[in-house]
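I am still learning, so can you show me any protein sequence you like together with the matching structure tokens, please?
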Amino acid sequence: MINFDSNDKVLISPLGWGLGHASRLIPVIDALLVKGCTVIIGADPHIIDLLQPRFPKVECFVFKSVSIKFSKGKYQFLALIKIAVKILLLAKREQKALKQIIKRESITAIISDNRYGLYSKEVKSVLVTHQLSPIFPKPFGWMKPFGEIYIKRHAQRFTECWIPDSENGFRLSGILSERGSTIPNAKFVGLMSRFNLFKSEKTISGFDMIGIVSGPPPHRLAFEQELTSIAQRLSLRTLILQGLPQSKSAVRTKGNVTLVPHLPDTQLAKELVSAKYVICRSGYSTIMDLIALQCSAITVPTPGQTEQEYLADRLNTEKLFSYCPQDELKYTTIEMLENINKKIKTKPVFQFFKL
């Protein structure tokens, strides 16, 4: 891996698609600060709202990526095409802006999570991604090779491509990262979780259920409503984390349901390990966080988001987590919730990120 030292000024810039691309860079930022590096964060406003409280002494500036919105139904092909076009155009704009940022801020290194335009021949540059082999929805599987060629071509422009997964043994990302061996500068660097070093203990006063809302609209609101319905129908004392660090809204209570826009990492970890049941999306960063905390969960992929559908199905098959489609949440029973606690006990040994 690239060597970083106290002479480096490192630009950290994650894609603004949800919070996962940013949250998994937290252990990277921690490691850089331990080495004495100067870190500067360039990101979307909601990402800055997530990271700045965690790193109050780190300079942040707005460096927008893409806005994401899905359609209301299960099929997201047109929405994904629009997003892909946005990302293609973004890469070109990023290159132009990056040259100015490097000069203005005296940057010596860049770590980008899924922002393909943030590479430079002038300084060390790292791309973080686990999606080297994207999954296209049926009947567009024929486009897969073209997606792989695009990603490989851009990944090779970086000094290194870091894949947040284990180098040896069980690969959490499965086929999503299987092309890593074909990219000369790719390195499997271990799972990246903000909870890598956390050792939270269970408390007897924990919630019966925690629901973690994430992903693009409009499905995030539908997911929140389904979680609220489950909690009320099954009379479970429930905490719903809305995944909105930028929100100024206060904590709200609806009977036995508490809705919180955001929680600091230490409090979130404590609540997760203390809860009887967890229901969340099957985003890769969320899965890495759950594994770091050794939490079981029912994973609910965002409808039409093929990567999450693949991960939910794969990890259910591997007996790591349970899987429930969003439109079947209304059938959730106590028996189903009890069953999730049998999953994580068979987990393999995972490697975690170290710089």
Observations:
- The chain has two domains: 9-188, 209-346.
